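Recall the central idea of this unit: under ordinary conditions, the amino acid sequence of a chain determines the structure it adopts. In this exercise we apply that idea directly, starting from the sequence alone.
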Amino acid sequence: MPKILIVDNEEKFCKVIKAALDLEDLQADYRTSGEAALEYLSGAQPEVVITDLRMDGMSGLDLLEKIGAAYPAIEVIMMTAYATQKTAVEALHKGANDYLIKPFEMDELVLRIRRIFEQKALLAENRRLKDSGREGPISFPNMIGKSSAMQKIYRLIKKGSENEATVLVRGESGTGKELVAQAIHGSSSRTGKPFVTVNCAALPENLLESELFGYEKGAFTGATQRRLGKFEQAHGGSIFLDEIGDMSLSTQAKLLRVLQNKEIYRLGGNERIVVDVRIISATHQHLEEMVEAGSFRNDLYYRLNVFPIHLPPLRERKEDIPELVHHFVASSDAAGVERRALAQLMDYHWPGNVRELQNAIERAAIICEGLIRTGDLPATIRQAAPQNSGDFEIPEEGLQLDDFEKELILQAIRKAGGNKTRAAELLGITRRRLYSMMERFGLET
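Accordingly, the structure predicted from this sequence is:
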């Protein structure tokens, strides 16, 4: 298809321009009126239109306006032998890309056409790069959930893995804070290096210090040989300090020294040991209140809270429950989950979050006969009053996870007023994936 359309009442002049462009390998066609040009454009759309300003019938300015309204991607070069400043400004204001005064050198016309093609190619490349940089739904192998709330968390994990800042993961117990730490480490430049976990709440103060920093032989009764601490074990990798709020003030001071100077001293020793460790910490406590109360160091808090990530509780992302249930059931001996049982799981408020859900499924899978039914669920879930589960509703038929995914799609589309792009955003998936799922479930696209 020709990339250029020439429009001028004088056919001889059109042929001269076409011949000159052909010599430059620029495919061109021509029409001798504005009306004929519009008819041509209805069937073929070149990239550039070169039109005379004054023509019998439709003028060049009128043609310019109609092209701009119907074919905004087409660039227009205006040419005339009756040029004034007023006509030039008017043509440019109405959307002309360029303006040529007759007579002109064909080399000048070719130069301006090639410049337009270069501009269009550059814009197309910029759009391609921008589109390629757009993030669709993100996922991590050890994390389950496609809700918009979890997509925000995944994006933070991705950003956190791209730098070396200390990360503070916050959230209620059972939300999966260690999984976030593992995802950050596994996606960072430290992947393949040690990832060491320390539960600060599980050890008394004296044992926690020796666990973190190690000790020399004879440091205390029973220290019969040197032992490397967790920081030395994690050298080159990451250390995850879970429940950092339970750390004593004396241990906090030593941790602050690690953050400031990248060094430790083993208990009972004087040797300065430099460590290269990224610190990721987590807590379910309100550290700000602890700082006010004097039970947590203000300077350490700011050192740890450089890159905070707050995990939402399960009750705030109930749309992820079907997928979580499916994941836990798949690793059990159960054949599936009865619809009414899943409905109860959706209604429950989950004070213990994902950990409680996992435990409930594991227990139910042990005692069930094939399918997990309502009677197999823990009494606390069966007896709980229905909770508000947002807009999620359980479909009346079917027992498979696909049915719930289908219902979620329908609910999202209804909530978005039929707007598929908005529905995809609500579901935390791309529009392409939404259409693919709609096609799979036989829904009208």
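The domain at 148-312 is CATH 3.40.50.300 (Rossmann fold).
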